[in-house]
Amino acid sequence: MAFGTVKTYNHGESSIILSLGSFIAMFTDGTFEARGNGELFADMQLLQVIEESPNASAQQILGRIVSACFEFSEGKLACDIAIPIIKRS
Question: 54, exposed or middle or buried, with CB in 10 Å at 0-12, 13-18, 19+?
Fold first, then answer.
């Protein structure tokens, strides 16, 4: 199933097997549009938050990402964010 695509977008399907502790996270553009000191929240900052959470639950990872976005943007997000996370535990 594709999220946020247009009808004319041709996408393929594939499947993966998540090993224990692995997860999939998807992010809307609002996550990366968080602004702080005139800069955008970058994918490297997002990866840092994720890498610092190796044993965290999906809910904890989500909380850390949202907190990092709010901290970076001083509590003023320019756009809404949605971050579905699927983790195999």
Answer: exposed
